[in-house]
Amino acid sequence: MTRLILAIDQGTTSTRAIAFEVSPSGSFSAVAVSQIELVQHFPRSGWVEHDAAEIWRATLQTCREVVRKAGGVDRFAAVGITNQRETSVLWDAATGEPLHRAIVWQDRRTSDVTTRLAAEGHEAMVQGATGLILDPYFSASKYAWLLDAVPGARERAARGEVKLGTIDAWLIWKLTGGKSHVTDATNASRTSLMDLSTLQWREDLCDLFKVPMAALPEIRGCADHLGDCDASLLGRALPIHGSAGDQQAALVGHGALAAGDAKITYGTGAFLVANVGEAPVASTSRLLGTLGYAADGQVAYALEGSIFSAGSAIQWLRDGLKVISDSRQSEAVAQTLKDNGGVYLVPGFTGLGAPWWKPEARGTVIGLTRDSGPAHFVRAALESLAYQTRDLLDALKKDGAPPLTRLKVDGGVTANAFAMQFIADICEVEVERPAFQEMTAMGAARLAAFGVGLTGELWTAPLEAPAVWRPRMDEAERARLLKGWRGAVKAAIIAAGGDET
Ligand code: ADP
Questions:
Q1: Phi and psi for 53 in degrees, rounded to 5?
Q2: For 361-389, what is the mean pLDDT?
Q3: Which has the closest alpha carbon to 455: 438, 442, 436?
Q4: In this prediction, what percent of the chain has a pLDDT beyond 90?
Q5: Which of 440, 429, 425, 59 has its CA nearest to residue 245?
Q6: Which whole number is the average pLDDT over 384-397?
Q7: CA of 268 to the centre of ligand 1 (A)
Q8: Pocket mutation for ligand 1, best pick of 266, 271, 413, 423 (most atoms within 8 Å of C-beta)
Q9: What was the pLDDT predicted at 247?
Q10: List of residues 6+ apart from 326 with CB closer than 8 A
């Protein structure tokens, strides 16, 4: 029986392999897991690096362990990959060794490049072509930095002797023993080099960022055959049949496949990806235009927005303010109050993300009275998750995205039922939390199972019913709370010396 899929989830802090069993009716269950933490390197302020060789070793080790735990490689039908996006690798085609440490998505070392390109007036063209703003977050300026930092790399790139790629491309190269230099279209959509309409590299963008096209991987669909594993690695030439960047894989994992479906992952930060349908939507609210997925001849575009501080606000209550001793306590403490008492917390600890984009903003609390106590801070922190989500959903609406049908949620914070109900109330949307939470790995597994023909559909509803929260707050109360929140955001922006827009 070859009904297992090997899903590789290569994240920022760890590398995991999960074996999913696919039932004949198309339901997925995780049967084995292996995980290895990843060392973070911070060589200078604002620089973040990973050792790509370490990532590869951990991938191989976790895959081998999961294959063994799940009863051997013959039980597996295919491999699916999901990964931290934008992180950039340069390697030697002949030896398969990295030529420099990988530059991680958080790394800001190339901000001078993107600032200069913006000052030269290139942002409208880049955003029009790729959906992305000019920012060092994306791979293009990282690729160019690597080529300049490694002696001889530029000349060798032109001769095809060195290769560039995001983590998916790196892992596929290693898994196939150097036979496939490919990437999937969702990962490619995060480089600033791919045309979002044609899903191909663009020569003018490659020239602008000084990245030779010859060094880039070929772009494929998310459920395409991406190569076969070298038989010596896992004992059999398993086909690699699915790949998507982490947030996009979660979109597929949640089954947010129709226009108007959206998912948001509430972890340390929160990441919204909203499916906008078959054509890209250009954002005027500084959301990012990106690819949702491309599989089976179908293409779904998405808009993406990030909240910098979500679960981290709860961590701050615990570790900074010390008003709770465990994140879980926040739910009971917030509910000791009948309402927020007019206290709002804007968790701008590291600035405000979409749609405000105020990196200089800082955390702000307003509305304190002599009655305010620790519970007000806890409640205000949990409520801020909902207000920030509402701001993103309003931005989506302003951009003309299809009306939201349901908000599918995952991540550590979703254990908090008070916060989930409050999100439903403030955002006026049904909030749905699946019983199985590993949506990123699940998305990679679903793409691979579909790609290899194990399932006939990309997504079928899981057997176990999700938890659902429906809006039940009255309109006047919602309007009053949102007015308070907007005042608080304004105060945060003014306090940081910004305009009160
Ligand atoms: P990440 O993948 O970013 O590490 P996780 O999805 O593991 O994040 O979620 C961890 C975050 O969830 C932490 O910031 C933690 O404070 C928060 N969290 C965990 N449980 C709860 C809870 N019951 N209520 C509120 N926040 C919670």
A1: -70, -40
A2: 96
A3: 442
A4: 83
A5: 440
A6: 96
A7: 6
A8: 413
A9: 95
A10: 318
* Ligand 1 nearest atom to the CA of residue 382, by list position: 25
Task: For residue 100, give the amino acid letter.
Answer: H
Q: Amino acid identity of 193? A: L
* CA 278 from centroid of its chain's CA atoms: 20
In 142-260, beta strands by DSSP E: 162-166, 182-184, 194-195, 200-201, 218-220, 227-228, 239-245
Tens digit of pLDDT for each residue in 30-76?
Answer: 999 999 999 989 998 888 999 999 999 999 999 999 999 999 999 99
User: What's residue 397's pLDDT?
Assistant: 94
φ/ψ of residue 208, rounded to 5: -60, -45
CB distance 365 to ligand 1 below 6 Å:
no
Do β-strands 218-220 and 227-228 pair in parallel, antiparallel, or remain unpaired?
Answer: unpaired
Q: What is the pLDDT of residues 281-332, one digit of tens each?
A: 999 988 999 999 999 889 999 999 988 889 989 999 999 999 999 999 999 9
Q: Measured in angstroms, how far is the CA atom of residue 413 from the centroid of ligand 1? A: 4
Strand partners, 290: 302
- Listed residue (407, 413, 409, 411) closest to 471, CA to CA: 407
Model confidence at 462: pLDDT above 90: no
Per 3-state DSSP, the chain is made up of helix, strand and coil in percentages (nearest 5) of 35, 25, 40
In a 13 Å sphere around the CA of 500, the CA atoms on its Cβ side amount to 7
Dihedral over alpha carbons 234, 236, 240, 246 (to 10 degrees):
-20
Instruction: Give 74-96 pLDDT, tens digit per residue.
Output: 999 999 999 999 999 999 999 99
Query: Which ligand 1 atom is the nearest neighbour of the CA of 412?
Result: 9
How many other C-beta atoms lie within 10 A of the C-beta of residue 23?
12
- Closest Cα to atom 7 of ligand 1: 412
